UniProtKB/TrEMBL annotation:
Transmembrane segments: none annotated. SUPFAM superfamilies: NAD(P)-binding Rossmann-fold domains (SSF51735). The gene is Cbr1. Its main location: cytoplasm. This is carbonyl reductase (NADPH).
Amino acid sequence: MSSVPVAVVTGSNKGIGFAIVRALCKQFPGDVYLTARDPGRGQEAVAKLQQEGLRALFHQLDIDDLQSIRALRDFLKEKYGGLNVLVNNAGIAFKVHDTAPFAVQAEVTLKTNFFGTRNVCMELLPLMKPYGRVVNVSSMVSSSALGGCSQELQQKFRSDTITEEELVQLMNKFVEDTKKGVHDKEGWPNTAYGVSKIGVTVLSRIQARLLDEKRKGDHILLNACCPGWVRTDMAGPKATKSPDEGAETPVYLALLPSDADAPHGQFVSNKTVRPW
Ligand code: NAP
């Protein structure tokens, strides 16, 4: 078993995830895994970094596929005996002009952004080594979407005692409410992406609390963040930040020094903790 530290970035064959891997290759003292659901796209991305003189390793990972997540988990357990840095970056967004019915957009978006991310956490968080760092890439849109929720929902999403089960129930309820055409009446905002990212931010707050309860002595820090508005296939060419600039906050959180005890359980953008 290797004692080399190991970092994993989900959805990193392109966009912000790719830039996070690039930065970690330069700054993280260990093995860095670029992961992708499509091995061809993943290997191509690894080769691109190699041309820049950087060495990333590849492992397949489709966060929608529990078997794929478990295969990565078993690999990490066997080869490294755990994991030091996990960046949950993989995500999707329908284009504004997409004509798919809202209920379809809701189901598909939450499947990857919330439920896929949660499944990765369920399988990989138990592997986190002491002083591990976990970064869940959310979005400022989670904050604006929270503001668009009913007072009752806002209270639930801001609660310091909400459980993961309660959050999962609420995320499922959103999808069901869109199918019944009652999401408006039930207090949800008109953004499936926004609700999925509310899920990611609230999940991060819950997970940080659980780490405090169960593994306080291990000094693991877990945060949600927004990379900013970044020029990628998702956000388009008009966005203000380059992918490397978008990677800065996630990388800052992934490399928090071992004597840091904060931020933890926070929503961070531009390396600054934001109110939730
Ligand atoms: P992107 O260029 O579209 O890249 C998304 C990445 O996620 C791709 O590598 C994609 O793989 C991967 N992915 C999608 N579904 C996956 C799955 N089921 N399993 C594994 N990988 C999957 O988007 P981006 O702008 O870099 O976004 C990265 C993260 O930042 C997302 O979570 C996004 O919501 C968040 N974010 C972005 C912005 C922005 O302005 N760009 C702002 C706020 C937050 P494929 O190539 O196979 O599709």
